[in-house]
Specification:
Helix content: over 70%
CATH architecture: Orthogonal Bundle
Strand content: under 5%
């Protein structure tokens, strides 16, 4: 029984799906994900896998930036650590896929904790610069440890195997990448129903007040960096198995900017924003390919695409910060409210 929107117990108030409508939409979404591989072409399965990887990494960055208020431009580097760890384990010892992904997440977590150490003393732009420095260091290590990482030429990744089946196509990888991403999203959604997640939000809103209330700032910030980096490491391992190759150039600074743009465009501090932002920012380059391909550029189309993509990413960040700082998630909420109140909306 409800009085307005109040719940009778804390468990009901903290429920992940607190209404029949949300449960119904969750079931519809699950059924759609299960049916998608049977009706989609190879190209759309490729995009679905790529979107899922980007959603996982964007969710990790949103935990750090959107929920804890710590700006990072090192997400690409943490993905690289996860990708190289999973690849090296696969090549040298042939360990199972899930173990490689977890190890990649663990290595990225350790790196994230180290990078997060300055976060108690610096914040904002200075912290962003510190994370850029971490990315530069990671790129240097990827390029100058040929015995381990293959140097500038990188490493080729053999297809993962599960139950004797080679996961060498997007249709097969879909059944690994998408479920892992869904689990990561559910984990993030549950995280912010706990004391730890609420501590992240308190640090974001008023870090000094949070410390006065007994929240240890350094431990909380380092934990946020650790969880965010773990997500990036898992996404990096999936990236390696999906593209079957990792090189230092696979994880440039532009990748970190991409994920920051996804978080801003989607909506900082929301689970839905991570999903919408990653989907939107993944599809933008595909649309740009179509537009550039229609122009009479001949063989110069590829050379034009990269700078145009960078400009578009920057323009999207600026545009959403000015005109819709709450991102696509807020636009979606406004649409829902409009239909919810129709036809009584004035």
């Amino acid at each position: 029984m409800r009085i307005g929107s109040a719940k009778q117990s804390y468990a009901a108030d903290a429920a992940l799906f607190d209404s029949r409508t949300k449960k119904a939409w969750a079931l519809i979404g699950l059924l759609a994900l299960l049916a998608f591989p049977f009706v989609a072409s190879e190209y759309w399965l490729y995009l679905a896998c790529l979107v899922s990887i980007n959603v996982a990494s964007a969710m990790g960055l949103n935990i750090l930036t959107g929920y804890t208020g710590l700006v990072s431009l090192g997400q690409g580097a943490f993905m690289g650590l996860g990708a190289y760890t999973a690849t090296i384990l696969q090549l040298r010892w042939g360990t199972p896929l899930l173990l490689n992904l977890l190890c990649g997440g663990a290595v990225a977590t350790l790196a994230g904790v180290l990078v997060g150490l300055p976060s108690l003393r610096v914040k904002g732009l200075y912290l962003a610069i510190a994370t850029i420095a971490a990315g530069v260091l990671a790129h240097f290590l990827f390029s100058h440890l040929p015995a381990l990482t293959g140097g500038p030429s990188g490493l080729s990744v053999p297809p993962a195997r599960i139950f004797g089946v080679d996961l060498d196509t997007s249709a097969k990888l879909y059944w690994v990448i998408v479920p892992i991403t869904v689990l990561l999203l559910l984990g993030a959604a549950n995280l912010f129903r706990t004391r730890v997640g609420r501590a992240f939000i308190a640090v974001r809103d008023r870090d000094i007040s949070a410390e006065v209330l007994g929240i240890p700032l350094l431990r909380t910030k380092l934990l946020s960096f650790a969880i965010s980096s773990f997500y990036a490491g898992i996404a990096g391992g999936l990236f390696a198995y999906f593209f079957r190759a990792v090189t230092p150039e696979s994880f440039p600074l532009l990748m970190s900017i991409f994920f920051l743009a996804a978080v801003i465009v989607g909506g900082m501090g929301t689970i839905l924003g991570s999903v919408l932002g990653a989907v939107f920012m993944t599809l933008v380059p595909e649309l740009l390919k179509l537009v550039v391909g229609m122009l009479p550029l001949g063989g110069n189309a590829t050379l034009v695409l990269s700078p145009v993509r960078t400009i578009v990413f920057g323009a999207l960040i600026i545009g959403f910060l000015i005109f819709e700082p709450l991102g696509l998630a807020e636009i979606w909420r406004r649409v829902r409210r409009t239909f919810h109140l129709w036809p009584f909306r004035s």
